[in-house]
Amino acid sequence: MLKGIDPRMTADLLDLLMRLGHGDELVLVDCNYPAHATASETVSGQLVELPGFNAPAAIALICGLMPLDHFVPQGAFWMEEDGKGAAPAEVHRDALAVLGAEMPEGGAVGSLERQAFYARARTGFGVVRCTETRAFGCFILRKGVIF
């Protein structure tokens, strides 16, 4: 146990977060996502399991330690539901509330069509799989800087 760190934080997730640099992207996926296959193609090749967390709770845990990037047009992305375009589903609205509170001034959240999300996820730094059961509950978080 460490002081000042949420006791639900896992050692593997903390290690992955510590190795991220500015601009690196962390992929947070739901329980249906092909997490192992995607993780094997990322920079770290690492899949971190985060059981017992839905996507908004996982985002809150991660953003409690990791700043989001505001030097780019979007510091985070959510996966669009097939055929719905940029209309957020319930899981996205819940997560956007958390991201809105964590996004630095000037930062924004964007959306990606599912296949574009898969392609971008494979270029990320690593993958975190939570136990979110709502469909399309997948996000990409871009690490910012601490001033």
UniProtKB/TrEMBL annotation:
Higher taxonomy: Bacteria, Pseudomonadati, Pseudomonadota, Alphaproteobacteria, Rhodobacterales
TM regions (residue ranges): none
Catalytic activity: beta-D-ribopyranose = beta-D-ribofuranose; alpha-L-fucose = beta-L-fucose
Superkingdom per UniProt: Bacteria
GO molecular function, one term: L-fucose mutarotase activity
Alphabetized PANTHER family for the sequence: FUCOSE MUTAROTASE
One GO-annotated biological process of the protein: fucose metabolic process
Pfam families: RbsD_FucU
Protein name as annotated: L-fucose mutarotase
UniProt xrefs under InterPro entries: RbsD-like_sf, RbsD/FucU_mutarotase, RbsD_FucU
This protein's UniProt keywords: Isomerase
